[in-house]
Amino acid sequence: MTPLVLAGVTLAAILHAGWNAVLRGGSDRLWSMTLMMIAVGGTSAAALPFLPWPAPASWPYIVASAVIHAAYNLSLVRAYRSGELGQIYPVSRGSSPVLVALGAAAFAQERLTVPAVIGIALVSGGILSLALQGARPRDGQRKGGFLPAALVTGALIGAYTVVDGIGVRLAGNSLAYANSMFLLWSVTTPVIYLFGRQRPPAYTRGQTMAALGGGLVSIVAYGIVIAAMQSGAMGVVSALRETSVVYAALIGRLFLNERLTARRIAACLAIAGGAACLAYPAG
C-alpha cells in the first residue's frame, strides 16, 4: 500500500466516523439518513454525465451492493436507537474486518494466515467488553442490548465490502463503479421514508444542513475506500479503515457527551489492533 493510499484510507476513516456522529446526534435518525441519501443522489446524478459507464461484468455487483447498502441504512438507524456512538460504531465497524477477511478468502482468493487468529481474538474481546459495559442508566437499556443490531450492521458492512471489492475490479473505473452504486443506493431510503411516514419532522436549518453535509462526507469516505480496493487487498483496506472506531470514541465524547472510560478506550484499541492484525496476513 502506497503512502498516498494509506493517507487516503486514514482520511476516509475519520470522515466516516464524522458522518456517523451526525446520524447518531439527529433527533429523527431515519429522516437524517434520508437527507443524507438525497445529498448522495443529487451529487451522483450530477457526476453521471462526466464518468464512463462501468463494464457490464460489474453491474450485478453494483445492484447487489446498492441493495445491501439499503439494508445497512435501516440497520444502522435501528442500531443507533439502542446504543451510543461509542458502542454501536466499534462493534459494527470492528466486526466487519473479520467477515471481510473470511469473505475475501472464500470469494476473492485472498489468503488468511495464522495472525488472523490474533486479530479475531482482539476484535471479539473488544466487542465483548463493550457489550458488558452497557449504556448509561438513564438510557433505560439492559447491558448488551445494542449488540444484535450492531452485529447485524457489521455483517452487512462485511457483505457490501466484499461485493464492492470484487465489483470494482471488474468495472474498469473505480469512480464509475462508485458513482453508479451511490446513485442506485441513494433512491432506496427516501422511498422507504415516503411509504413509512406521513411528513418529515421539523428540523432546523442547521440540522438539515448537517445531515446533507453528512451525505456528502459519506460519498468522499467510501469513494476513497472503493478506489483503494481497486489496487489493494480488501482485507488490508478494510482493516485500516476500521481504525475509525478510535476516532468515533473521541468524537462521541467531544460532541455527543458520551462516556470515554479507560475500559471503553481499551476496547476500542483492541478492536483497532485486531483489525490491524487482520490486515497483516492479507497484505
From TrEMBL:
GO terms for biological process: glycine betaine transport; lipid A biosynthetic process; lipopolysaccharide biosynthetic process. The chain crosses the membrane at residues 30-51, 58-80, 112-132, 144-163, 175-196, 208-229, 235-256, 265-282. Pfam families: EamA. Keywords: Cell inner membrane, Cell membrane, Lipid A biosynthesis, Lipid biosynthesis, Lipid metabolism, Lipopolysaccharide biosynthesis, Membrane, Transmembrane, Transmembrane helix, Transport. It is a multi-pass membrane protein. GO terms for cellular component: plasma membrane. It comes from the Bacteria. It is found in: Cell membrane. GO terms for molecular function: amino-acid betaine transmembrane transporter activity; antiporter activity; choline transmembrane transporter activity. Signal peptide: none annotated. Its main location: membrane. Residues 149-278 form the EamA domain. Belongs to the drug/metabolite transporter (DMT) superfamily. Small multidrug resistance (SMR) (TC 2.A.7.1) family. This is EamA domain-containing protein. It comes from Methylobacterium indicum.
